[in-house]
Every structure is written in C-alpha cells, then in structure tokens.
Design brief:
Layout: H1 11-20, E1 26-29, E2 32-35, H2 41-57, E3 63-67, E4 71-74, E5 79-81, E6 85-89, E7 101-102, E8 107-111, H3 117-121, H4 123-128, E9 136-140, E10 147-152, E11 158-163, E12 169-172, E13 177-180, H5 181-184
Parallel strand pairs: 4-7, 8-9
Antiparallel strand pairs: 1-2, 1-5, 3-6, 4-5, 6-8, 9-10, 10-11, 12-13
C-alpha cells in the first residue's frame, strides 16, 4: 500500500485560510494542517476551572489568562497551535498587526484526551520548547487526578513533577502561584470520560 503525499502549506497560506474559517479550527506544524475536533464535557469543565482560578490568582498582576481560541505561533518549529490555556506575563508580542496570533507565552496548559495524549507529551511539547520565554508546560488528565508539571531549568533541561493526590496543590512557579487539584477538578466526574468523544 502506498502512502499518499501530504500537501505542504506555508504558514502564511495556513493563516490566511484559518482566519477565514468560522466553524473549524486547525493547528499547523511544519507545512501540515491538522483539524481540531470538539472537546468533551470534562475537558471543557477543567479548562473553565483553570481559567477561573488562575484568573483570580493573577488578577492584580501583569499576567493574562487566555483559553482555547488564541493562536500561538512558534517560529522555531514553524508551528501554530491553540493551547487549552495560555498564561502570558508581560507584554504580548504578535505575529502581525491583526493581533490574533501571539508569539510568546509564560505558561501553557493542555488537557489530555486519549486521542491527543501521546502528541501532547511528545511532539507538541517539542514544538513548545521552541518558545524561549516558556517557563512551564502543564498536562492535565481528564479521567483521573493527574497533573504533570514540566519546569524549564536554568540549564535548559525540563524537570517533571507529577501530582496525583486529590488533596495536593500544584506549584506554578512560572506565575508564582499554586492551584489545588480540588479546584482544577471541581465538578469533574471521571465516570463520564469513557463514554465521551476524544479531542
């Protein structure tokens, strides 16, 4: 069986088409375009919990919390993604004067699903490491208490801290605050996960 060649797109071609899309979102990695599917109830609930609690904790600080629809351009990897949660401390930098594509981030959070977990842990993390100002990358399971925090060290290595205790708090040193797992998973029912579609 032969493999069909995949079309390659320039980032500018992708961006022009993406800006015209009204009912779909696509991510872009090195010439390839990938459609994003809808998110499950738990996925949306966790994202909303994160936005609310992080937003409250960072209210009086020069940090902004954005969810789902903010495009993030990673020039070093020729990629553009829609992180589940993006926190930016300091001045935003944009790809162009449309101001709908950020090029910097301090903290990125992805909520995992069975269809994306491998990519979020591997390929997407490799893409995100191309952001020089990114200080932490957080992966959150939606089917169990599990939060993995990757923190960039001064020598460029990334240190993993895994949190699975429902009573634990997760230190987010990049934005100088903590989040309780009980807040992240507020109202989440793990028994819903198996019956819901992936993201």
């Amino acid at each position: 069986m032969s493999t069909q060649p995949k079309p390659d797109y320039s980032f500018e071609d992708y961006l022009a088409a993406e800006r015209e899309c009204v009912d779909e979102k696509h991510e872009y990695v090195d010439g390839q375009v990938f459609a994003m599917t809808g998110a499950s109830f738990n996925h949306n609930l966790i994202t909303a919990n994160l936005a609310r609690h992080l937003g409250n904790k960072l209210e009086s600080r020069p940090c902004t919390v954005l969810v789902n629809d903010m495009r993030l351009r990673i020039d070093a990897a020729d990629a553009c993604t829609y992180p589940d949660v993006l926190v930016l401390c300091g001045e935003p930098r944009f790809h162009d004067n449309r101001k709908d594509v950020l090029t910097n981030a301090t903290l990125l959070i992805e909520v995992l699903s069975p269809s994306t977990e491998g990519y979020d842990r591997g390929g997407k993390f490799a893409v995100y490491r191309g952001l020089p100002e990114l200080a932490q990358y957080v992966l959150i399971a939606q089917d169990r208490f599990s939060v993995d925090v990757f923190t960039r060290q001064p020598d460029g290595r990334w240190l993993l801290e895994a949190h699975t205790d429902p009573n634990a708090s997760v230190p987010l040193d990049a934005v100088d605050c903590t989040l309780a797992l009980s807040d992240i998973y507020d109202k989440v029912r793990f028994d819903l996960s198996a019956a819901e579609p992936d993201r």
